[in-house]
Amino acid sequence: MRTRFSRNNSDALTVDLTPMIDMVFILLIFFLVTASFNKMNAIDIQRPDGATNDMQGAVSLVVSIDAKNGVWIEGEPVDIRKLRSRVKTLSGAHTSVMLNADRTVDTGRLIEVLDQVRLAGVDNVAVATAQQ
């Protein structure tokens, strides 16, 4: 006696995995696009302490000054005379720059770098500090 709901053993059940694989790739792309990457620690810098810490959401360019007064953009060394043109080429119209300076950097060097960044057309410039 056969029931209405019984199946033949010859009928194979197949599961289509294509929609699941598509969803996994979509989620992977979503997480890669929305992930924020930390660009601040490319160089070993001891930041000065600050009582206030203004956390910026999206910094588009990081300019670092190491303990030997060397200037770096995005982890690559740059001559101070070429800093303005490099900032212009790497920054957009409405950009922000984070100055990541070592605590032993001369104030004159910090002001020189700050001037070059502002002369490149960037008005939103902040100096990174360590939290106390």
Describe this structure in words.
This protein is of the alpha/beta class. The model has no long low-confidence stretch (mean pLDDT about 75). The chain has a 5-stranded mixed beta sheet, with helices on one face. It has helices spanning about 20-35, 85-90, 105-120, and strands at about 50, 60-65, 70-75, 75-80, 95-100, 125, 130. Helix 2 (about 85-90) packs across helix 3. The termini are far apart.
* Beta-strand residue fraction: 15-25%
As laid out across the biggest beta sheet, the strand order is 4-3-2-5-6
Low-confidence stretches: none
Oligomer type: single chain
Which structural class do you get from the secondary structure elements?
A: alpha/beta
Report the total helices: 3
Would you list the SSEs in sequence order as H and E? HEEEEHEHEE
Give the N-to-C terminal Cα separation.
81 Å
Q: What would the keywords be for this entry?
A:
132 residues, alpha/beta, five-stranded mixed beta sheet, 3 helices, 19% strand
Briefly summarize what is shown:
By secondary structure, the protein is α/β, with parallel strands linked by helices. Helix content is 29%, strand content 19%.
List the helices and strands and how they pair.
Elements: H1 18-34, E1 49-50, E2 61-65, E3 71-73, E4 76-78, H2 83-90, E5 96-101, H3 107-119, E6 124-127, E7 130-131
Parallel strand pairs: 1-7, 2-5, 5-6
Antiparallel strand pairs: 2-3, 3-4
Helix pairs in contact: 2-3
